[in-house]
Amino acid sequence: MKAELTREALHSDLLRRVEEISGQNVLACYQCGRCSAGCPAAGVMDLLPNQVIRLVQLGLVREAMASRTIWYCAACLACEARCPKGVELPRVMEALRELVMDRGADHLAPGAVPPADLDEWPQQAFIGGFRKYT
Ligand code: SF4
Ligand code: SF4
Q1: Which numbered atom of ligand 1 lies nearest the CA of 34?
Q2: Residues 87 and 113 in one domain
Q3: Are residues 93 and 116 located together in one domain of the fold?
Q4: Same structural domain for residues 115 and 96?
Q5: What separation, in Å, do the N-terminal and C-terminal C-alpha atoms of the chain show?
Q6: Average pLDDT of 33-38?
Q7: What is the Rg, in whole angstroms, of the alpha carbon atoms belonging to the chain?
Q8: pLDDT for residue 41 is more than 70
Q9: Please, are residues 96 and 70 in contact by the beta-carbon 8 Å criterion?
Q10: 78 within ligand 1 shell (Cβ under 6 A)
Q11: How confident is the model over 87-100, as pLDDT tens digits?
Q12: Does the residue 21 lie in any domain?
């Protein structure tokens, strides 16, 4: 990924919004990588969880919002439990998803779920999916 680091980015409104929504001080992260080492979804992510938070730290929030990682995050909290700095990374992922959805992006239309799947899928999967994707 090629991204330009600028003074404006470091002081961007979007960075402030991520901190407001998530309630996290993203600058507390010192990039130890423990979150990514314990993330069960890391294998399918295009950016590792610590790379997502690094982008946010640098004010490159749009790049983080464009990442597939924020949608593959299962909100399992493993990263949060492993973080030596107390960063609640799942909240940062949620904030990034919220910012994407605020801009009108829908990832899953409830009516598009095939009826046959409705009997098969666990209710928790629907609740989690709709919370995350619609
Ligand atoms: S475990 Fe915490 S401090 Fe380490 S890279 Fe992840 S978010 Fe940053
Ligand atoms: S909450 Fe998301 S980023 Fe953190 S370990 Fe779980 S799947 Fe990975």
Answers
A1: 1
A2: no
A3: no
A4: no
A5: 27
A6: 98
A7: 16
A8: yes
A9: yes
A10: no
A11: 999 999 999 999 99
A12: yes
Position 118 in a domain: yes
b/e sequence 43-53, b meaning 16+ C-beta within 10 Å:
eebebbbbbbb
- Best residue among 45, 47, 56, 85 to mutate for probing ligand 1's pocket (most ligand atoms within 8 Å of CB) is 85
Q: Is the CB of 83 under 6 A from ligand 2?
A: no
Atom 4 of ligand 1: nearest residue by CA position: 32
DSSP assignments along 35-89, one per residue: HHHT-TTGGG-SS-HHHHHHHHHTT-HHHHHT-THHHH-----HHHHH-TT---H
CA 129 to each of CA 42, 92, 126: distance values in angstroms, whole numbers, following the listed order: 19, 17, 5
**Is pLDDT of 122 > 90?**
no
Range of the domain at 134: 108-134
Q: Can you give the pTM of this predicted structure?
A: 0.83
Residues 75 and 132 in one domain: no
* Closest-approaching ligand to the CA atom of 78: 2
Q: What φ, ψ does residue 16 adopt, rounded to 5°?
A: -60, -40
The CATH number for 65's domain is 1.10.1060.10
* Residue of 18, 24, 10 lying closest to 85 (CA atoms): 24
Nearest 5°: phi and psi at 75?
A: 55, 40
How many domains is the chain partitioned into structurally?
2
